[in-house]
């Protein structure tokens, strides 16, 4: 199925609902489709084989996503926060293309062969012009590339993940009920447009008939103000965002009265943060989602009922599920495999493999990374419990090998975060003469606590080999803007500090 | 008349506005009908002399999914119409899907 059809169905069955923007002055689904078809006609005629976007969030994001689909060209949202040389390199790899840009971006990058820039304001004006020509139908078919997303990649050159129309629409139609949202529902999108969650939020909301409000970029106070003023009911946040939102709500005591469902993902959520969130937002249903760019977003969810059951249970196995990512979606399969690719028993750790129509596992110019049976190795370590709940322990590439024993940083970080004085924690392996790799931790604390006290805290809960050999107290940790810890940066810093 | 279905294949009713897309193909060729008459591929010629069979006129709502447990066929309605779907003369049931919590 083609992305153009999702929009067509929304415009057909929910024409007069507000699709995009403020409650009072937003654009309806019928109008969104008109504008996307006008922009589609412009983009079809524009130079290049792809449509890029280097910009903050705005109504131009959904319009360009659908407009590019209608034009039959892949949509390539690019990280505007990259340093100039990296940005220029990715732009060159996107050529030949027309790239929609915010103010100042074209000047910043300068001319690149095969690249034409189109200013966001001009693109929006063309889309809004009632005299503008509209594309009829859409270009290409379901097997064509809909979106290219450059992954942050911890090593080497960024890879461009390929998401075809069929991957994205399979995800939407198997997980979202068409027109399933109430007329009063609205979602705020504050993840950047080059993040898979920014793409899936637009598609899910369109298909379910939920209004979308695009916040330019995440800033906690602006986020809280928009949620309150616009009666926002749904949001997706990464862990670092949630902590900052809670700080504001706690300080002003006004809660988020309209919010019904808050989903979190994009990294491990510290248990104390989610407990604090549940306390401060008693009317909100929490959803933990796990997914990857290469899987068209979510592949497992821990829903509000799972959260309640875990909170209410005395059974340690059920209570532990608060730290899980829930059960795999019914439309796909998950399997945990050991190093030689054999499936392991429940409770045993291994690499998470996933298979299903939404799974792409393909990179531009590198082909597919699916095996012969269609399974995608995620490079994430995890296990399934007896009830089929999936636990994610972090990237396999981040595993610390200390004296022949494999240690997951995530497990040690979770224990550090249980200490009341620890606000943020990160654990990496650093070179060690004695062990090959040693365990080093970096923590941000909000109270009085010593290195020895923290070591004792970990040793009391995990075996001693998992206790950090060294701990650094810091003011901040290196995160990228989508909340992912920059482990490579931290590893270099701690290796130097503790050399 | 039997159709060989494949995912993404689009069909329309010959007697009403219904359009559908194949989500999962049937294991073998099937006699897919809407409004009592075999459907045709979108873009193919629609015979002009047929009328809606009142036994298959309960309607096909937009956005609903249908599943035939026997053949494995799964369909999604992409345009609503007055006719209803059947395999031969057996009505095609709605797919029973539990709603998932919104995660994005």
Assign an overall shape of chain B.
Answer: globular
Q: Mean of residue pLDDT of chain B?
A: 94
Range of helix content of chain B: under 10%
In CATH, what is the class of the largest domain in chain A?
Answer: Alpha Beta
What is the approximate shape of chain A?
Answer: globular
Topology pattern of chain B, helix = H, strand = E: EEEEEEEEE
Distance between the termini of chain A: 55 Å
The number of domains of chain A:
3
Q: Cα distance, first to last residue of chain B? A: 42 Å
Q: What percent strand of chain A?
A: 25-35%
The largest sheet of chain B, given as strand count, sense and whether it forms a barrel, is: 5 strands, antiparallel
Which class of secondary structure composition applies to the elements of chain B?
A: mainly beta
Fold and architecture overview:
- The complex is a heterodimer of chains A (499) and B (104).
- With 499 residues, chain A is an alpha/beta fold.
- Chain A has 3 domains: 215 residues, Rossmann fold; 110 residues, Luciferase, domain 3 (Roll); 99 residues, 2-Layer Sandwich (GMP Synthetase, Chain A, domain 3), CATH 3.30.300.
- In chain A, strand 20 and strand 21 form a beta hairpin.
- Chain A is globular, with a radius of gyration of 23 Å.
- The model of chain A has no long low-confidence stretch (mean pLDDT 93).
- Chain B starts with 9 loop residues before the first strand and ends in a 13-residue tail after the last strand.
- Chain B has one domain.
- By secondary structure, chain B is an all-beta fold.
- Chain B has a 5-stranded antiparallel β-sheet, with no helix packed on it. A 4-stranded antiparallel β-sheet of chain B has the order 4-3-8-9, with no helix packed on it.
- Chain B is globular.
- The model of chain B has no long low-confidence stretch (mean pLDDT 94).
- Chain B contains no helices and 9 strands.
- Chains A and B meet through helix 1, helix 7, helix 8, strand 13 and strand 14 of A and strand 7 of B.
